[in-house]
Amino acid sequence: MRLEDFMRKQVVTATATTSIGEALALLKQNRIRHLPVLDNQILVGIVSDRDLRDALPSSLYARADDHIIMTKPVQEIMNTEVITAHPLDFLEEAAKTMYEYKVGSLPVLEENKLVGIVTESDILYKMIELFGVNKASSQIEIEVEDRYGVLAEVSQVIRESKVNVSSVIVFPSATEGKKNLVFRVTTMDTRTVTSMLRDKGFHVLDPIRGEFLRD
Predict the structure, then answer these.
(1) Are strands 14-15 and 34-39 parallel, antiparallel or unpaired?
(2) Which domain holds residue 121?
(3) Given this model, what pLDDT does residue 176 score?
(4) Which phi and psi angles does 6 have, rounded to 5°?
(5) CATH code of the domain covering residue 168
(6) Is residue 211 part of a domain?
(7) Cα separation, 196 vs 141, whole angstroms
(8) Which residues does the UniProt record annotate as the domain CBS (predicted)?
């Protein structure tokens, strides 16, 4: 899935001269946490709710110049080294970028023009959708040999059980030479399919006991 498929295209923005008080109001009104800053339609920075909170005086002390802080432009506190993405970037690439750079959002640029934004919440929700856990389903985890064709073999057994698969995840097993296949299937009763998998010699992990089901 590419960012253009789910990014927010109606982006709330500020200008370099937008005041801290105005920026706070924009975040609150639109229920967002990240505000790209534009100058002549060019992205020049970004401010987050945390940046704005850090700029405010402590609520424990009242100072004569508190109102001055609220009128300062966001260009004085914005982050000018903005990590961005492209509409054709894949979801997992964006997730990796956000993790590596420890940022909560990625403005999406195309030919230096801001065309969207994705946040950590957007990424997380799409991952939930891709894993199929947003719908009624069950998980079947199988430890298999790390070899060519094994995924097709397991999939064939599931097909024969007439159970529909909503997602598949493959990751390394703790056992050398093995890998784990995690199927999300659209049934709440997995007894038939797990029995068929065991009959074919596959090791099905019991999600409750953390053990492999065997005959």
Answers:
(1) parallel
(2) 3-128
(3) 93
(4) -140, 0
(5) 3.30.70.260
(6) no
(7) 14
(8) 7-63, 78-137
pLDDT score for 65: 57
Instruction: State whether 57 and 124 are in the same domain.
Output: yes
Residue numbers in the chain where pLDDT is lower than 70? 57-66, 207-215
Q: What is the pTM for the complete model shown?
A: 0.78
Q: What angle do CA 48, 6, 132 make, to 5 degrees?
A: 110
Q: How far is the C-alpha of 131 from the C-alpha of 129, rounded, in Å?
A: 5
**Alpha carbon of residue 74 to chain centroid:** 28
CATH number (domain holding residue 57): 3.10.580.10
159 and 86, same domain (yes or no): no
- My answer on whether 108 and 174 are in the same domain is no
Residue 215 lies in a domain: no
For the segment 68-81, what is each residue's pLDDT rounded down to a tens digit?
788 899 999 999 99
Nearest to 35 by CA among 15, 55, 60, 53: 15
- E strand map for 27-66: 34-39, 42-48
